Amino acid sequence: MKRLVVLGGGESGVGTALLGKAKGCDVFVSDKGIIKDKYKQVLIHNEIEFEDGVHSEDRILNADIVMKSPGIPNQVDLIQRLIKKGVPVVSEIEFAAKFTNATLVGITGSNGKTTTATLTHHLLKQELNVGLAGNIGDSFAKQILEHDYKNYVLEISSFQLDDIIDFKPHIAVLTNITPDHLDRYEYQFEKYIASKFRIVENQTKEDYFIYDGDDEVILDWLEKHPVQAILLPFSLTKTFGNGAYLDNENIKITIDNNQIIMPTKNLALEGKHNIKNAMAASTVAHLLKIRKQTIRESLENFQGVEHRLENVLKINKVQYINDSKATNVNATYFALETMDAPTVWIVGGVDKGNNYQELFQFVNEKVKAIICLGTDNKKLMDNFGGMVDIIIETEFMSEAVKIAYKVAEAGDSVLLSPACASFDLFENYEDRGRQFKDAVRNL
After folding, report:
1. Is there a binding annotation on residue 111?
2. What is the tally of helices (H) and strands (E) in the chain?
3. Is 112 assigned to a binding site?
4. Does 109 show up as a binding residue in the annotation?
5. 114: annotated binding-site residue?
6. How confident is residue 61, by pLDDT bands cut at 50, 70 and 90?
7. 293 and 315 in a common domain
């Protein structure tokens, strides 16, 4: 009987514990923080031993295998000691994938992965038995245990990829790579790029790799590190024999001389980056033999993702937009790019080593006022102070929204697109987005 130690009692940890127990492991869950009540109840109900508020080293170091939450960096002393002892330390996707024969679609990237994963699932579920997991919804491990879908769409972060050994998606998607989470990669962009590319490291020539053919970082890496899989790039400017490209207003996708054409003019999602997300998702659907009529209808009725450029309300002819999921500069770049009205921009939070330069053109063109919502706004003030007439600091969402309400005029937009992580003032980006929506509804 294998001893499985799970570090972190959140969604992925509890899912792994349940799957491990069902497969005959001796399971112990340890969380240095406090495990949420709903997860405690699940562990108690399933008679799984756990502790929180502490890591009992003697009960962890005797593991045969350790599954760690993606939030725990590998540099932590306890993890280093496990690695020195030769104990495999893996992520949930690595652990869980061993217990399914399903076709796996793995989606990663600095931005767009949640939208692309959700959209891909939306296209596939019309005709296939398919689960959506990874960084999103119910954990992958729990879904294998409860549903055993024939296919999975997995949204995968670089942190989850850091802890794989054999994990291999049949179809890998890389939406883009821009500097993000550099605080976890010793501020070395190369290390972060390498981490993202682990999604293809176990692929063979029977597998597929779908990626942004306009992304210089990706193209440069592929030149130096050839991959085994069949390459299917997508692009807004180039054309490909195999892959997806834009021809006038149409997306054309070719795989082995089999071409489908999708009009973009009725896409439910707006913005250039969403044409790319649609290309990636449609390429997966085409590979998995979804009918083109189904793909077309699904692209036209897809509602998008909560906290991602989500229209909340229009008040006094001012549109309030929740883009709380924009936790890095590049995501905010896409948001500002799609703004066509004068914008009151709410920004700030935990800076992960951001370089704000690429936003300057949009701020100069479109932003009339900036509201800094963070505990430390100095960098924002230094970067943007000279660009707008109004720049205000606050630490409360309700206050930020009230200020925005005062500053905005008919025809303007108020955009929450923080470009930063949320942990200084909020539990997570969802909490930040919900507080924004509540504050707007209370105006």
Report:
1. yes
2. 17, 20
3. yes
4. yes
5. yes
6. very high
7. no
